[in-house]
Design a protein that fits this description.
single chain, about 240 residues, four-stranded antiparallel sheet, 8 strands
């Protein structure tokens, strides 16, 4: 058995695609050969992340045996890839060469599938992992208790996490504000209509910076009629840049 074919077989065992006979033979050899056991373990560790991304779907019973049986029963081949005519009926076909090509193809296909799945896992994790916030602010209520946590990114996408139940009068909503310009007026980032934590998005503002003011007020349903804070302040605080 060549090194290449042995590596293919170890990968097939790790992926559960090897025949029961091959798996038993290799595992018996690995029990007597520490180097082979280490190679088999490395193959299993390399493909271990796949176990967390997909359920076990075994091949149909006798899948590879069926392919081998068809190859063993072949006596005639179509035109080869080089344009040569296949042997006439009754001539011997070099099945060993055909099986060798099938084995190489299967090994290449398994490697490509494994690489694609791992790439999909990494890409999915990257897409699901939110970027670190540019600034963070803890908003304090009138009693000096932490009321809400503000996390805002460079595009002013702002995550508002309430730390205390909101005491909002009936018929009013919480509205989130910031002051991009210390000398300018507050700008609304949006409403917490359901009175719960949420992410707010707004465009057209400069990237937030350190010591930028954030606050939450109670406003009439639908938001402040003046586009400026009118109700009592539920929480207020200055932003800081996180240490990364």
């Amino acid at each position: 058995m060549t090194e290449r074919s042995l590596d293919d077989l170890l990968d097939e065992i790790a992926l559960g695609l090897a025949s029961a006979e091959d798996q038993s033979r290799i595992e018996a050899m690995a029990a007597q050969d520490a180097a082979l056991a280490a190679r088999l373990d490395r193959a299993r560790q390399r493909f271990a992340p796949l176990d967390d991304t997909a359920p076990v779907l075994p091949l149909p019973q006798g899948f590879w045996q069926g392919i081998a049986a068809r190859l063993d029963g072949a006596t005639d081949l179509a035109t080869t890839g080089s344009g040569e005519t296949a042997p006439a009926s009754g001539m011997v076909v070099d099945l060993a060469r055909v099986k060798s090509r099938l084995g190489r193809w299967r090994g290449t296909a398994l490697g490509a599938i494994a690489a694609s799945l791992l790439l999909a896992c990494v890409t999915g994790w990257t897409l699901l992992s939110p970027p670190a916030p540019l600034v963070i602010a803890v908003l304090m209520d009138a009693e000096g208790e932490a009321f809400a946590l503000i996390e805002s990114g460079a595009d002013n996408t702002t995550r508002v996490t309430l730390l205390e139940p909101a005491d909002v009068p009936a018929g009013q909503v919480m509205q989130v504000w910031t002051k991009p310009d210390e000398a300018g007026p507050p700008v609304s980032l949006g409403l917490l209509v359901e009175g719960s934590s949420r992410t707010l998005s707004i465009s057209g503002l400069p990237a937030p910076g350190a010591r930028q003011l954030y606050e939450i007020t109670a406003e009439p349903a639908g938001g402040s009629p003046t586009n400026l804070p009118t109700g009592p302040i539920l929480g207020v605080g200055l932003a800081k840049e996180p240490v990364l």
